[in-house]
Design goal:
Layout: H1 3-14, H2 17-30, H3 34-58, H4 64-73, H5 76-105, H6 113-130, H7 132-159, H8 174-185, H9 205-234, H10 237-242, H11 246-255, H12 257-291, H13 310-323, H14 329-357, E1 370-371, E2 374-375, H15 376-389, H16 394-421
Antiparallel strand pairs: 1-2
């Protein structure tokens, strides 16, 4: 993939199901100030994006987070935990978003949600198997469609004749509500980090990856903030909070009943796109970690014709199908964000550590704003990530810690098995 396809891949990863599903929930918490939550999300994503850009310019490898942490801290166990979190959350995200697809698809065809979700995972796993070129073209087309849908929402919002002016600083729960909404909607920003996991299928990755990561975060963040400003001009935040399809409601209010169908269709494309690229990235994480000998070696098998890691693709598909039985997208979004902010904290810290332990290593891209060797933005990113990790309900934290514990058990049992077979 070149810069255009990779940037579209990143935009498609970010502009996925999150905005279509979670903006209503966020508006219910932050009110008309929901746009501020998206500005905060954009800033935090950009901090992490800069760190990913620098590290991917040095280590353009599959299983990127594992490789970053291993090289920075020279600690295989810590690297495994972060890689494990990334791999499992990609599966959970794909499965949960597939359920969202089933819900939207049921509006058009009377098929049980689980059957639609499982069918989607199977079909998109086949696309993943066929090859990265086909996957990237599918993603590019779907991304253009979903961007068009969001631009339509922006146009409706800013041309809508609203008799009551919107107070963009109003929040029913004050600053606390904006912060809570920011933590929730950060699910809509995650995805760009998976760009680093397909580094080995990118042209001139050391230059192309950093540019594409930064571009995709800036493009997506700008669209999100404009959407957040637009929707509350058309539908008040209380109605948005109670709607299962908030974007479709905005379109219907602005353009009539037919627009509801149009936006529901576009939402299907957005959700499908999210699932596809999450499956692509997830299979490359499994492949990369198996190549690093921390996952079973069978996952490194590449199909002789399609050149794709077909065993890893099958494992991701089957595990994803199992996870489709979880259900609640808000709960799972929070679990995913909890895992991601831990990963982001580790990646931001890795940039700082490597500036001192490997000062002379070639960096095709460096995070801007430095004092001597010390990078300022990763420090802010680290602090905000730690703060976000402390904002979740105890149930979410326990599930996140449970995923880590399962990974630790796997790590030691797998290493013990390897030792016994030598």
């Amino acid at each position: 993939m070149g810069l255009f396809h990779l940037t579209m891949y990143g935009v498609g990863l970010i502009l996925g199901a999150g905005i279509y599903v979670l903006i209503g929930e966020a508006a219910g918490i932050a009110g008309d100030s929901v746009w501020i939550a998206f500005v905060l999300g954009s800033v935090v994503a950009l901090f992490a994006g800069f760190s990913y850009a620098e590290l991917s310019s040095v280590f353009p490898k599959a299983a990127a987070e594992y490789v970053f942490i291993k090289n920075a801290f020279k600690n295989n166990f810590f690297a495994f935990v972060i890689g494990w979190l990334t791999a499992i959350t990609s599966i959970i995200t794909a499965a949960t978003v597939a359920i969202g697809f089933g819900g939207y698809f049921a509006e058009f065809v009377n098929i049980p949600i689980i059957i639609s979700a499982v069918g989607l995972l199977i079909v998109l796993s086949i696309v993943n198997f066929i090859g990265i070129r086909e996957s990237s073209w599918t993603n590019t087309i779907f991304t253009i469609i979903e961007v068009a849908g969001l631009i339509l929402i922006i146009i409706i919002g800013f041309t809508f004749s609203n008799p009551e002016p919107v107070n963009y600083t109003e929040s029913p729960t004050g600053l606390t509500g904006i912060v809570i909404a920011f933590v929730l909607i950060f699910f809509a920003f995650i995805g760009f980090e998976d760009m680093a996991n397909i580094a080995e299928e990118v042209k001139k990755p050391k230059k192309t990856l950093p540019r594409a990561i930064i571009l995709s975060v800036i493009i997506s963040g700008t669209i999100y903030v404009l959407v957040a400003l637009a929707v509350v001009r058309v539908v008040n935040w209380e109605e948005l909070a109670n709607s299962a399809a908030p974007m479709a409601l905005v379109a219907q209010r602005g353009l009539g009943a037919e627009a509801h169908i149009l936006l529901s269709s576009i939402a299907l494309f957005a959700i499908t796109n999210t699932v596809l690229i999450t499956l692509v990235a997830g299979s490359r994480i499994f492949y990369g970690m198996a190549r690093e000998k921390v996952f079973p070696g069978i996952l490194t098998k590449v199909h002789f014709k399609t050149k794709t890691p077909w065993i890893a693709i099958i494992v991701i598909m089957i595990t994803g199908i199992v996870f489709t039985f979880i259900g609640d997208i808000v709960v799972v979004a929070n679990i995913t964000v909890f895992a991601i902010v831990i990963t982001f904290a580790a990646v931001n810290l890795a940039v700082i550590v490597l500036r001192y332990t490997e000062p002379d290593i070639e960096r095709k891209f460096k995070v801007p704003i430095n004092i001597g060797k010390f990078p300022i933005l990763p420090l802010f990113g680290l602090g905000i990530s730690v703060y976000m990790a402390l904002q979740f309900e105890i149930e979410i934290v326990l599930v996140g810690l449970g995923i880590i514990v399962v990974g630790i058990i796997f790590y030691f049992s797998y290493n013990k098995q390897k030792m016994n077979t030598k």
